[in-house]
Design goal:
- The complex is a heterodimer of chains A (907) and B (276).
- Chain A is an alpha+beta fold and 907 residues long.
- In chain A, 28% of the residues lie in helices and 23% in strands.
- Chain A has 22 helices and 33 strands.
- In chain A, the strands form 8 sheets. Chain A has a 7-stranded mixed beta sheet with strand order 8-10-6-18-15-16-17.
- Chain A is globular and about 75 Å long.
- The relative contact order of chain A is 0.11.
- With 276 residues, chain B is of the alpha+beta class.
- In chain B, the strands form 4 sheets. Chain B has a 5-stranded antiparallel beta sheet with strand order 4-5-10-6-7.
- The longest helix of chain B is centred in the C-terminal third of the chain and has 19 residues.
- Classes of the chains: A alpha+beta (907), B alpha+beta (276).
- The interface between A and B is large, with 67 and 49 residues.
Chain lengths: 907, 276
Amino acid sequence: MKVAFTLNGTAASWSGPPVTRLAAALRDDLGFTGTKVGCDAGDCGACTVLLDGRQVCACLVAVGQVEGRTVETVEGLADTDGTLARLQDSFLAHGAAQCGICTPGMLMAAQELLRQVAQPDRTEIEDALGGVLCRCTGYTKIVDAVLSASVQAPVVVPAAGSAVGARLPRVDGHAKVTGRDVFGADGVPADALWIRVVRSPYARARFVLGDLAPLRGRLAAVLTASDVPFNGFGIYPDIKDQPVLADGIVRYRGEAVLALVGERAAVLSIRDDEVPIVWTAEPPVMGIDAATAADAPLVQADKPKNLLLDGGVRHGDAAAAFASCAAVAEGVFETAFVEHAYIEPEAGWARRVGDRIEIHVTTQTPYMDRDEIANVMQLRPEAVRIVPTACGGGFGGKLDLSVQPLVAIAAWLLKRPVACVYTRPESMAATTKRHPARVTAKFGCDAEGKLVACDVSATFDTGAYASWGPTVANRVPVHAMGPYAVPHVRTWGEAFFTNGPPAGAFRGFGVPQAAIAHEAMMDELADQLGIDRLEFRHRNALRAGDKTATGQVLAHSAGLAQCLDALRPHWDKARDEAAAFNEKGGPRRRGVGVGCMWYGIGNTSMSNPSRMRVGLSPAGTLTLYSGAVDIGQGSNTIMTQIAADALGLPAAQFTLVAGDTDLTADAGKTSTSRQTFVSGRAAEGAGRDLRQQILRLANSGPEAVLSLDGAKLTVRDGAAVRTIDLATTEALMGEGTFDPPTTPLDANGQGIPYATYAFAAQMAEVEVDTELGTVKVLRIVAAHDVGKAINPMLVEGQIEGGVAQGLGLALMEEFLPGRTENLHDYLIPTIGDVPPIECILIEDREPLGPSGAKGVGEPGLVPTAPAILGAVHHATGVRAHRVPLLPHRLREALIKLQEGALKGTAA
Amino acid sequence: MGKYVRPSRLEEALSVLARPHVVLAGGTDFYPARVGRTIDEDILDISAIAALRGISTTAEGWRLGATATWSELIEADLPPLFDGLKQAAREVGGRQIQNAGTLAGNLCNASPAADGVPGLLSLDAEVEIASQAATRRLPLDRFITGVRRTDLGPGELVVALHVARPVRPARSAFLKLGARRYLVISIAMAAAVIEIAEGRVAAARLAVGACSAVAQRLPALEAALLGAPVDGHLADRVDRAHLAPLTPIDDIRGSAGYRGDSVLVLLRRLLAGLAP
């Protein structure tokens, strides 16, 4: 059927089945890929468009229903000459777009509002944008952008030498606010075949494949385990335990079993029950207790006791030291599987180019992908090219393989482009999660409130396959005492296999779980001694010159005490206000909490080098070749700012080539908050190297000032002015490398695991409805020692986004296999849940970092849940021992507390 | 691929329904149930039928057309009787869902947590159903018969909801409890309508959702409120025994005990809010 309508002011027509989703018609047939698909179920709002001026989810509209109507998409916001709408400008100027996947939906929702109300207030904005989820920004800068949409946004264009420290809008932002950025599902060639993966409905089962010939007759191919040259992948070189396609055994619900390859409509029309698989389900091993039971069945036959690995840190004699403590606190804290819930599901496509395979994919780690695909396909790494698309959020979840091996193998065998785009339920069931943890903590201090000893054991459910489990189990013991000087330390980390989804990397690598425990202990010790909770932390804060539990002396950049000092006036005021509020009585109680954290930047005691290049072509094109992937956090912009100042030319003159493994050098993975610190330092080196080459060519001194005008490069050194005609020279290429200096940890966990650490303290104000058990977070103040804020706007964006995820961890997020595999049963914070966030940036310079900078990607999240949970305790007396603190759990704890108090009175 | 028909006349739609079709209007329940698979059912799209649209006054009260959306309700010029239902409408999904989803679709989907049902029960709404053979009206509490089940027979289509005009001035309110703001499925919700004569409750209709397979009225509470002065003490009349019609369950959103406790709180707050 033909459907005629008006699209962005122009007559459009579309032919096909009228029940087709409008989102699919726009994207797949009309080429309007600015409208994003995050769930196809109206849960995320990424596909928001205006239909007759009203915002709707394009995934819920039958294209047959738009006959004769007007549809507006993000592509229609700017003028036809390309001039951005004020709203788009405002999004750029405020840093409201991070990864950019929700940006088109946010813009369209805001557009509906701004036509009704020219200058909306915060409540009106929340009501209008409440249907669009964002996982990156914490919504703060989106609200700011809409609040300011009626005024012309100021333009920040730093001059040469002043890019570092500037609130430069994202260098890749224009494409994000116009809907032109190409994400994993956006650039699929028209002639590509599609893959639909058939997945296990059981957490643990054996299976036998029946006769696949009839299916193969309908499709281009049906891939099974036997089609995979090396059927195992995994993060660690010696643990390739996860099959690309399961071979007779499945170990978690959602595990890939078969890949149906064919025309898109053909693969989607095949129902799972048409696929001949005979299942023999077995009782699954779910949770830590089941995995560690004496008679527990093994998840992986060659992993005795279901143990992945264990290890810890020993310093002094903790057991003996507790005897001398004036106060001792103990507790056990449990966390759940947490889903990354990036709004862009996994997506990508591959094509065979001669004897090479080229994979366009949303990823955090092109070089690891390259090497892993080479291993799976038994090709040389040079035969694999990874071209990262724009990445619509990662948070650690796109550090593992998803679609890559399937599209690569299919494209290789069929010699045709092959694409795969996960559905939302598939993304949630099949991909990695945050490790559920059980953290047992004991801390003791002396009568003055100085910490003396701690003993922390963290047990993790690593799910069916190792993934990043070893990283979590290694990192946590180093961090589990918290950012405090503790002379006697015993910490332990261990991870066990279960038939849960593989637990992998998720913003913080286990440290957020451990922080919930150590911060509860700080509150309790402070309370026992009658010391203010913030003051207690201040007394114990690690400072420059202190020795950590691994025996590392922190020579520089340990700014926790400064963070706490910055919080103190807010803290005092908020505590007074909460007390005044509570004096009025009633079911609502307010409280204030503080959480602290530290976080080692980069890999734990392992090399993690970055190499960056800056080139200047004979045509005068200045290019940053960055292998660092920008997953929304802003590394494209940060690297450009750093390289620009190191070279001495304006950031605006840079073009960028990012991620492509054929065109860039390996800058490692976007994880462990390392890109600014490690790749940034390499970018600084590359800029300096190019500058040195130019100064040599011009025979100029180090203070010379550069300017670039087309192919004319001018070098002013005092009165001397030299002009280099680049057209007559070879292309210039500067290069920089950096690998943070660390040492291995010995059997007692002694050594230098990280070259530098980020520190932070956050304060949360909450209001608890004690009758319903609901918690409303009223305000967050976040003080972070970032060394140096290369771009304060982007740093704030990282903190605000981390805070939102920390709020989710504390109050609502719990992944249950088979139960919460969509974005209406699995809840992440909406624009109405995230309160105003005030960021305070402390710059305690790290000499190793570029301009003194260190990382901030993960630290934003770590202290938030502890601060919120501390505030709930302050408000109600309930200490959460299990997160998320869902309303019914808090209410039940309140009842228990009241019953206990009554019994106490009776006795 | 199935058939897709989008008639503009009701008669045509009813004749199409002589054969089984899935009815599509706002799409807000239809598409989420069909993620990642080909849609191959025969579809009757009722969104083009003018006779099913709009909210209007009638001799007896108000008629809400089957394809009237939550946003149309929010924006309609209606008396305080409808304040509660409007509050419920603002709690449905996000603005996108409110702009597309229909009240009648919410009833036909028959989820235990349907946001529209408690409010419409408290309004004593009737469902107008048509088929080629006949037209009938059914009180809402007899229309929804179970989880995802309604009284709709083969060939039948909901054409409108009707709300009678109360003889006395009425006030109404709605409260929803969820684990986040926006886009959230209710843990529990409660709706109330009271009619007032001489400062006292002359009629009361209260309903609770997400605490039983089908949202339930609370007749004992309604009786207990009759004759009570409409003041700050109205909430004191709520008693746990009034919750007898409810059968809350444990699920991922909350425990049964928590639901029961919370409903009491919601009802008390609802009534406290109705006092001047």
